[in-house]
Design brief:
Layout lengths: L6 H8 L6 E3 L5 E4 L5 H13 L4 E4 L4 E6 L15 H15 L6 E9 L5 E4 L6 E9 L11 E4 L7 E4 L7 E5 L6 E3 L7 E9 L12 E2 L1
Antiparallel strand pairs: 1-2, 2-10, 3-4, 4-5, 5-12, 5-13, 6-11, 7-10, 7-12, 8-9, 8-11
């Protein structure tokens, strides 16, 4: 896909993100029903299904498999994921969606959850991290398969506000802060894949963020 293609061709091959809806409850978040092109979404999902290097991570808040795409720069079929022009367009589109400028320092990671895994209510309120996009990839998940992303107005299950369907290639974005409560329901059947984009503040200088790439 990269080859001798122009920057515009590469971006158009990877990124759609062409329709965005803003909602304010329980806090500002954005929805996109079509994040990648259909072709790239299929390529990336197939890669996620076939890759054998997912690493299990367990904390008091969640249990899931993870990977960081900075470890896979040798995988030619998904190189468009981190192409500078793709990330630049993503930065600009995300800024327009939220109505505020976001940084070109972006980390891309993947999550895989299998039956029994979930994410408890948390905020991801990390110093220096400003916004997150969560892109869902799957081959169809029934409404009772579990693993839905949930936004909450507070830190308890009684504060549940929005439950998102797991439409493949759809995305949810939200700002990160002390009020960005969210959770992932326990997966009952099948496998739940998501691609996570985290935007870092330009002012953050902590060395732990050296894996962020610049758009």
């Amino acid at each position: 896909m990269i080859g001798g293609a122009t920057a515009i061709e590469i971006v158009d091959d990877v990124l759609a993100f062409d329709t965005v809806v803003r909602r304010t409850a329980p806090y500002l978040h954005v929805l996109s029903p079509r994040f990648y092109t259909e072709k790239f979404a299929e390529t990336l999902l197939g890669w996620c299904e076939a890759d054998a290097t997912w690493r299990l991570k367990e904390t008091v808040l969640f249990r899931q498999y993870e990977l960081g795409f900075s470890d896979f720069k040798h995988c030619a079929e998904i190189q468009g994921l981190w192409h500078p022009d793709v990330l630049a367009r993503l930065r600009d589109a995300t800024s327009r969606a939220f109505g505020v400028p976001v940084s070109g320092r972006i980390n891309i990671s993947g999550h895989k959850l299998v039956p029994g895994q979930h994410g408890s209510i948390h905020t991801d309120n990390e110093p220096g991290e400003t916004h997150r996009l969560v892109v869902q990839l799957n081959r169809g998940r029934a409404s009772d398969s579990g693993g839905n992303l949930v936004l909450l107005s507070g830190p308890t299950t009684a504060d549940m506000s929005v439950v998102f369907k797991q439409a493949s290639n759809s995305a949810v974005g939200f700002g990160l802060g002390p009020g960005s409560h969210h959770a992932i329901g326990r997966v009952r059947t099948g496998t739940r894949f998501t691609i996570i984009y985290t935007f870092l503040s330009d002012a953050a200088t902590d060395a732990k963020y050296n894996y962020f790439v610049a758009a």
